[in-house]
Amino acid sequence: MDYFAHETAVIDNNCQIGKGTKIWHFSHIMSNCIIGESCNLGQNVVVSPEVILGKNVKVQNNVSIYTGVICEDDVFLGPSMVFTNVINPRSAINRKNEYLKTTVKKGATIGANATIVCGNNIGEFSFIGAGAVVTKEVLSYALVVGNPSKQIGWVSEYGHKLNFNVDGFATCKESGEDYELKENCVKKLA
């Protein structure tokens, strides 16, 4: 076993768990999921069947990742954030064949207590503020907050707000990397 699982963690059959991954207290990893290398799953995390987590995904305490969710590399899922997987759940109606897919792209951050309504993809390096309720697609590098969530700006790959000049250029205050905003799309310059 090339990963760590706390003695209270439950890991079902047919899971793939990458080298260096840590699974903490009272977490449940369900069958047929794939967890990449160097991930960290905090206390009381549930990973449902067929979920895919890339490398270096950080899942904070009390997060449930439901069937239909794919998190690419370097994703951060804040404490008690929530994914849904059915648009119109009802207790008396089985909708397991209606699970909608949600992809969280590389480097995205989802803040504490945020809710991601299924079928809405989260763009690369985007930043979803604590408590936001995401009801539509989130663009790469977008900063969104509120209920329902609303884009209020753009962030760098280091998570700092980008202040674009009139020519559409900005620099990350921590990394010094330059970005360009053109036609509502941000890209990092080489």
Features:
190 residues, mainly beta, 32% strand, 5-stranded parallel beta sheet
Structure description:
The protein has 190 residues and is mainly beta. It is built from no helices and 24 strands. The protein starts with a strand and ends with a strand. 34% of the residues are buried.
Detail the topology: elements first, then pairings.
Blueprint: E1 4-5, E2 10-11, E3 16-17, E4 22-23, E5 28-29, E6 34-35, E7 40-41, E8 46-47, E9 52-53, E10 58-59, E11 64-65, E12 69-71, E13 76-77, E14 82-83, E15 102-104, E16 109-110, E17 115-116, E18 127-128, E19 133-134, E20 142-145, E21 150-154, E22 169-171, E23 178-182, E24 185-188
Parallel strand pairs: 1-4, 2-5, 3-6, 4-7, 5-8, 6-9, 7-10, 8-11, 9-12, 10-13, 12-15, 13-16, 14-17, 16-18, 17-19, 18-20
Antiparallel strand pairs: 20-21, 22-23, 23-24
Give the overall shape. globular
- Structural class category: mainly beta
Radius of gyration: 17 Å
Q: What percentage of the residues does DSSP assign to strands (E)?
A: 25-35%
H/E order of the elements? EEEEEEEEEEEEEEEEEEEEEEEE
Helix content: under 10%
Number of helices: 0
How many angstroms separate the termini? Answer: 40 Å
Beta strand count: 24
Q: Mind describing the biggest β-sheet?
A: 9 strands, mixed
Mean of the pLDDT scores?
97
